[in-house]
Amino acid sequence: MRFLDAAPPAHDLTYDDVFMVPRQSSVVSRYDVDLAASDGAGTTIPLVVANMTAIAGKRMAETVARRGGLTVIPQDIPTEVVGDVVRWVKSRHLVFDTPIALGPEQTVAEALALIPKRSHRAAVVVRDGRPVGVVEEQDCADVDRFAQVQHVMQPVQVRLGADTDPREAFDRLDAARSRIAVAVDDEGCLLGVLTRTGALRATLYAPAVDARGRLRVAAAVGVNGDVAGKARDLLDAGVDCLVVDTAHGHQDRMMDALRAVRKLDPTVPVAAGNVVSADGARALVEAGADIVKVGVGPGAMCTTRMMTGVGRPQFSAVLECAAAARELGAHVWADGGVRHPRDVALALAAGASAVMIGSWFAGTHESPGDLMVDADGRAYKVSFGMASARAVANRTSTESAYDRARKGLYEEGISSSRMYLDPVRPGVEDLIDQICSGVRSACTYAGAGSLEELHQRALVGIQSAAGFHEGRPLATSW
Fold first, then answer.
1. Peptide bond before 274: cis, by omega within 30 degrees of 0?
2. Which tens digits make up the pLDDT trace of 399-450?
3. Does domain 2-93+208-470 have CATH number 3.40.50.720?
4. Domain 101-203: which topology?
5. Is the full-model pTM beyond 0.85?
6. Is 302 noted as a catalytic residue in this protein?
7. Catalytic residue among 302, 321, 436, 443
8. Fewer CB near the last or first residue (10 Å), C or N of the chain?
9. Is the dihedral of CA 46, 52, 57, 59 positive or negative?
């Protein structure tokens, strides 16, 4: 990457401060762009779901890995629970989505409570393990809530085999004018579900899989307590990437934690952070990190900069840390501060191998937590920062009341925020489509066929606030 005016500016830059200039391109189509990361994490798109309790759960991990990304399970989840999540994710199908299964005698009320938890918005009625019908929300309208689902279900219109090609599945759904298909195994038992959009995505994305062809998932460990012991348990559970995580990564305790993890001789990439300087990036790599997490304070839930004055504008932080890590053969993940697809493209242009996303994915069907509705009928989920009082309370639940109260006294981060679901893009896959479309187009404008070429060819200029505002679309006429 180079700046349009040759010399870098004298001040640090956010994503809003910069833009990319089109270059001569021989990339014919955005679909010719390879979005696979080169950092060893095994992703086929450069997206990593941040290790936040309100965002990174098993449903998120399954769905994002199926589209080629990676989810990091948070450090405050008990190790045995993380093990269960890893096993669950790795048992999921690479094409078919995990269904909601209901018995014929279960009620409409139960169906309505579960259906909103899936972006495919349906439940499969199962008898003796075999699907006998499908229930969607419209089937439950104006029906007594205690009615049994077997009396409101629709017959299965499209039934797929375990090895059905996604293109064939799309054509069969289209021909039947059906929204959802039910997949069964060789015994006729329920295997999964697939929508037309899901079948289409299966032809456009390659899942992130391990050497055994199973979906990938990562997990985080903190820098306190028995770091080596917990890291060993996570590695034994089968995580595909280990993230050593703390808010201030450039400290002695982090270096000790990294060295302890390296003594385990892990065969998976080790990420660590967070830092925002070249010195911090070098220190983490020299202590054993393969990937450095970059970002202090840019996240939507983070109040660190307002509370402490500490942090750094994210574009400059990524640019400097990526250059330092690259000199040592390592990589960086840009962690936080992305609110538009352009921000992801700019982080990759600055040298990040992948971009971590948190709050942007909080308002989706796949994030943990119940779907709630406000007084105006808008659906939302509650999100919170990992240094907030709520997160600290969860993380210190086994400590004494005094220690918990003392730690809770100094909170940073928002403890409760409503993250509204976009009616047009309510699922994380919808957001992934939007992001990848933007990144692919950015690569074609830069004449780049891969993320490495994007970093090499990106020509970046600096703009005023008015310049950024000029590029924003208008929802209504002026």
1. yes
2. 788 877 777 776 665 556 888 888 889 999 999 999 999 999 999 999 999 9
3. no
4. CBS-domain (3.10.580)
5. yes
6. yes
7. 302
8. C
9. negative
